[in-house]
Design brief:
The structure is a homodimer of 272-residue chains. By secondary structure, the first copy, chain A, is an alpha/beta fold. Helices cover 25% and strands 26% of the residues of chain A. Chains A and B meet through strand 2, helix 1 and helix 4 of A and strand 2, helix 1 and helix 4 of B. Chains A, B: This is Aminodeoxychorismate lyase.
């Protein structure tokens, strides 16, 4: 059975936790509202895929058990919108890097503040810190997030997000905590899955439902020319879609197709 | 001032620690004996370089303070050899990936079991898991160690270490927790610094003092032919040098130069 840690006064974990020691764990941040969690199934899928990739025996049954306990605690449908973070680590034990047998997962659930969202337009910048094309756990939301931490440290206070490129690749593929979208003449352009450090749940949903919003889909990295000509949207499942108004001190346009998509998506997912 | 956590009954860290959440931290494992710590200065240098690279304001003065407290607790010169692990994280706080200002480091000190060491010859294997050439924090002993964890999970119970290659590179450059050496006709061959996930303290010391052991130095990745012809040594500062006797079910020779180096180095550093 996993070890459960629930929101309370000053939750702590043993200092020998393998998530702390080596990054052997995954997490999800889930927007929860009176109507329930947003994109729950997508978050479940990514969490379980990450656990499999990292050798953590936390399966759908264990996740069901978490979900039931979280529901009983009122965490999945709070009175006001909130963000619920679940972290699943490989627990304690093992000899150095070698995991113990069996691994006993540790599951930490906490409520974290919802991020402020500049609905009228975000400032972003191009980051120097590259994404590794072969990082272990790539695509999964593992606890090893140094690339994103170091890219975030490049941002000034009034910059909302940093754009990142794959080392040796061309074009911009991802924000530190958002996926990237551009609406170009009726087509949703977004970087391909295999270039992403984290496979965004909102992105997956949006690509799957693009025709519902009257858009075709093209998957490719975005160039600076794309941004300057067609504009840029940022998206994740706790903020919805956010238009970009400025990148690196130069303006970024917001076209009519993008404005409509932002309104439609945010309404559909229950964002303000 | 950093927050200190010392060995005691069940040490814990707050669940919002940035080392746990994102891997924003570094660690060192230090062999400590009645004669004091082994290669202390090299461990200090690597720890401080890692903190600088990861934006953690833990400097030489803070490390001096740690060292003094550790000495007062008897941790640096125990009655029997032991392994002291120090972990320095970016502490708690911040908005998501963005670090707080200021960062208050958290310093966790624990005694961990000394690894068993097959002095008569280790079995190793070639690992599938590659090392990323551009991983954030590369060279530093950061808490983001998924590559090493996943490579270690490839090992069977009777395999002591796994050899890793840089993605897209040629040759073997590093073990999951050791550096690699081959003694070839009076020359110490070891992979170059810029190909290492972690810059080994024993390796640095050995390269600097090679002439003391009557050896020249050549820095290059090792091929399987090197291993099969000249043999392979594994080394780190908590185990000293260990000869390899078998790799992937085929024997690996141990030549006279390697045997002498193992004896000389282990004697000089106080290993049994």
């Amino acid at each position: 059975m996993p070890e459960w840690i629930w929101p309370g006064s000053d939750p702590v974990v043993p200092s020998d936790d393998r998530g702390l020691a080596y990054g052997q764990g995954v997490f999800e941040t889930l927007r929860v509202t009176p109507a329930g969690p947003v994109l729950l199934e997508a978050h479940r899928e990514r969490l379980l895929a990450g656990c499999r990739a990292l050798g953590i025996p936390f399966d759908a049954g264990a996740l069901d058990a978490w979900q039931q306990q979280a529901a009983e605690r009122g965490l999945l449908a709070p009175q006001a919108p909130a963000v619920l973070k679940i972290t699943v680590t490989a627990g304690s034990g093992g000899r150095g890097y070698r995991p113990p047998e069996p691994v006993t997962p540790r599951v930490i659930s906490v409520l974290v503040p919802a991020p402020p969202v500049p609905r009228d337009g975000a400032r972003v910048r191009f980051c120097q810190q590259p994404l590794s094309a072969v990082a272990a756990g790539r695509g999964h939301k593992s606890l090893a997030r140094l690339e994103q931490v170091l890219a975030s440290a490049e941002l000034s206070d009034d910059e909302f997000e940093g754009l990142m490129a794959v080392d040796g690749g061309s074009g911009w593929v991802e924000g530190t905590r958002t996926c990237l979208f551009s609406v170009v003449d009726g087509t949703l352009v977004t970087p391909p899955r295999d270039q992403l450090a984290v496979l965004g749940t909102l992105r997956e949903w949006l690509v799957r439902n693009a025709d519902h919003f009257g858009l075709a889909v093209q998957e490719r990295a975005l160039t600076e020319a794309d941004l300057r000509t067609h504009g840029l949207l940022l998206g994740n499942s706790v903020m919805g879609l956010v238009p970009v108004s400025e990148c690196g001190d130069s303006p970024v346009p917001v076209n009519a197709g993008a404005t409509r998509l932002v309104e439609d998506v945010n309404r559909e997912l229950g964002f303000g």
